[in-house]
Amino acid sequence: MAKDMYASNKPLATRIWKNRELYILILPVIIYFILFQYKPMAGLMIAFQDFRPRAGIWGSDWVGFKHFIAFFQSPFFLSRLANTLRISFATLIFGFPAPIFFALLMNELRGKWFPRVVQTVTYMPHFISMVVLCGMIRDFVARDGVITYIAGFFGYAPDNMLNHGNLFLPIYVLSNIWQGVGWGSIVYLAALTGIDMQLYEAAKIDGAGRWKQTVHVTLPSIIPTIVTMFIMRCGQIMSVGHEKIILLYNEAIYDDSDVISSFVYRYGLTMRQYSYSAAVGLFNSVVNFSLVILANTVSKKLSETSLW
Amino acid sequence: MKKFLAVLLAMAMVVSCLAGCQGGGEESSKTETSKTETSKTETSKAEESSKTEEEKPYELLDAIEYTGEMNIARSSYVAYPVESDGYTLRWWVALPNNVANGVGTVADTEWAKNMQEYTGVGIEWIESDGSSEAFGVMSVSAELPDVVEWEWANAYPGGPVAAEADGLLTYLNDLIQPYTNGADLWQFLQDNPQIDKQVKDDSGNYYCVPFIRGSKYLQCTSGPIVRADLFEAAGVDYTTISTVDEMYDALTKVKAVEGIEYPMLGRSLGEVINLLGSAYNFRAGMYRDYDTTEIKYGYAEEGFKEFMKTAVQWKNEGLLHPDSLSIDKNTRTEAMLNGKTAFIYGAGGGDLGTYVQAVETDPSKYVSTIKFDTINFLVANEGDTPHYAGASYDYATTSKSHGAITADCEHPELAMAVLNWGFSEEGHLILNFGSDYTYDENGDPTYSEKTMNYAENGFASIATSMAAGGRANMSFPGAQDPGYIFAYYASPVQKQALYNWNDYQDSQSTLIPPVTLTAEEATEYATIINNLDTQVKTSYGAWFAGTADVEADWDSYLATLESMGLSRAIELQQAAVDRYDAR
After folding, report:
1. What is the pTM of this model?
2. Residue A266 to residue B534, Cβ atoms within 8 A
3. ipTM of this complex prediction, to 2 decimal places
4. Among B127, B109, B13, which Cα is nearest to B431's?
5. pLDDT at position A165, please?
6. A12, B49, B131, B404: which could form a disulfide with B208 (CB 3.0–4.6 Å)?
7. Contact A55 B167 (CB under 8 A)
C-alpha cells in the first residue's frame, strides 16, 4: 500500500476512490444508520404535537412542551425515573464486571474441549429468544418453580416471586447476567488474545505467579477495552430493555418494575397516546445522551481512553 | 496499538448493531406514520352517490312496533345484483380465528363468495390480524381500502368524529336513506329505533355500518360456570346459591372435596369482579349507577373496597386461587376438567363448550361423575336481581367489525350496496347462516344439516364449519341472528347457560352506552383514564398479593385517583352520556 493513500492533503473524492473497497465495506453500516437511526429522528417531532396518524406530521397540531409537562407532573414520573435508574445502575454495577471476570477465568482454562464446552454452554442463553427466555424465568420463579423451591429451603414461603416487588430487581439483574455473561465475554477474550506473550514471559522471569500476572499484565492490557465498553454501556443506562421488563412484570409490581421504556411502550402502543409516549421517549434519550457525554468526559480526565 | 484499534472497531460494530436492534424498531415505526400526506375528506364523493331519485321505484313497508327485542331485517328494497361495472372493492378485514383454523382465508369462505355473487360487486379481501398495530399501519397507507371493518366508537383515538376529520371514514347519512343502496339498512334502523339511537354520533351522523347484537340471548354469553358434581359431592345445592355469603359457605365445603386445590379461580381480577362484582353493586371501570343513572368509576366505589377485602380473604383461606391475577386459559381448562377447581367465570361457547366436548370426546380421561352447570350472577341479598352482570348494548362496540366506508372509496354507493345486503331480508339469512340456511322445528332460521355435521365435511369443530358458510358466529357488519347461538351451543347445559345468565338479570342500563366524545375530550379522557388504570392495577395487585392492605390504603388511594383527575374523567363521561340520552 502506498503511503500517500492516507494523506489528507488529497481531495476527498480522490481519497474515497482510492479506498473504494473499504468504503464499500462500510456502506451497509452507513445505510443502516441513516435509515434506522437518523431518519427516525425526524419523527420525534410528534412529541411536540397532538399527533393524529391519519393527519400525519404536517397535519397535526403543534402543542409545544405540553406532553413533557404532563409527564413531569404525572404521578408516575418520579417512580418510573427512579425505577429506570435503579434497575440500570444495578445492571451496570453487577452486570458489567461479570463478563470481564468470566473472560479472565476462561483465559485460565486449559485443555482442548473443556473451554469450548464452557463457552458454548454460557453463550446459549444469548441465542434463546427473549420471549422464551422470560417464559423460562417466569416458570423458574413461579409458585411451583425450581428457584422458588430451592428458596424454600432458606425459609421462603412458596409464592410467585414476581408478585413481590422487592424481588424484581434481583431477578432481573441475575437473569441478565445469566443471559449475557458468555456473549459479553467475547470482546474481552478477543482483547486477551491480543496481549503480547512477551509480557507474560517477562513477568514470569520477574517471579510473578498466575495471580500477579493477571493483575499486572492481563488487566492493564485490556483496560482500554473495558473503558470503551463502559462508556458505551453508560449510554444505555436509561434504555433498560423494555422487552424484558414487559415480559416479566405484572400489574402487582408496577411500582417496582415499570421503567420509562415500558411506560412508553404501554402508553404509545397499547393506549395509543403517540405524542405523549414520544415525548417520554425523547426525554429518556436526552438523559441517555447526557450520560454518555459525562462518562466520556470523566474517562478522558481519568485515563487517556475516550470515544472522542 | 493497531491490534487494539482493530478489536475496538470490531467491537464498535457489534455494539452499534446491538444498540441499533434495540432502539430502531420503535422509532422506525414512528416515521412510517410521517410518510403519509394528509388526505382531506372529500365529502362530495358521498353526496354524489345519493343523487336524488325523483321517481319512487318501490313502496316502503309499513312501520312495525319495536318491543325492545330486535326486529329482524324484513325489507328487500335494493335490487341485487347491482351494476358495478367491474369495480372491485378493497375490503380490510380481521381474519377470524374460526376462518383461519377452518377454510384458511376469508376469500375461500362461502360467505365471502356469496357477498360478491349476490350483490354483484367484486371484493378483494385484505386480511389482517385485527391488532391495533395493523390498523395503524393501514390507516396511514397512501391509499385506503374502500371498506374497513373496525371498532370506531372507542378504538380510534378521538373516536368517530376524529376518524372523519382525519379523512379516514366518510359519513353515511346520505347513503342510508330510502331509495338508495342503503335502503334496507335504513328500514332496519327505522324498525329498531333503540339501535338507531346507538349507532349515530351526537350530531346524528352515521359513521359505520354496525355489527348488531340485538337479541337478549346474544348479549350475555359469559358467566359463572360450576363443576356441579363437586358441589354435590360437598353436599351443596349450587342451584340455590345467590349471595356471596352462600357462595363462601359452599366453597368452604367444596374445598374439602378430594382433588380440589382452590375451589374458585380467576384468570384476571376482571374475571373475579365478573363473578362477585354484581353482589357488591359495581362494575370494573366506568359504569352507570342502576338507581341514579349517574356515572361512577367502579374502582373508586365502596363496593370495590368490600369486594377486594372478600377476594383477599378468600385467597388467604385458600378458596380463591392465589394466582388469580394472571392464569392462562389452558391452566384453567386443565384445572376445571381435572377437578382442581369448581367455580370460574367463562364463556358458554369457548369455555363451557370446550369442557363439555372434551368429556364427550374421551370420557375415559375424566371421572365418571363429571358434570358442568351454570348459575346466575351473585347478588347482595337473597331475591335481588343482578344489575351489574354481563351485558352488552345492541350496537356491539366491543367488536372490531363495524364496516366504515373510507374517504378514498371511489364508489361509496357500491360499498353501501354490499354492506346493505346483510340488512335485506334474504341477505340477512345468507350472511348469517350461509346460502343453504334452513328452518328449525320452531320455524326459526338456522344452519343447514351439512354445516352442523362438521366432521363429515372435514372440519375440526362446529365453529370452523359455521364460519365457512356464514358470518353469524363471528362479528360482522350486519345483525347477528339469535338462531346462531342456540345452534352453536349444542349441548343442553350450554343452552341452559343462556337462560341462566340472561333471563333473570337487568344489567344493560348500567353499562356506558355507545357515546361519542369530541376529539379534544377523547384525548383528555384517555390521558386521565390511562393513568387511573395504571394506578388501579398497581394498587389492587399489591392488595391481592398481600404486600399492602386495602383498608389501610383506601383513603390515600382515593386521594391519588382524585389527583389524577378522576372527577374530571367522570364529568367528561357524564356529559357524553347526557348527550347520548338527549339524542
Report:
1. 0.78
2. yes
3. 0.71
4. B109
5. 84
6. B404
7. yes
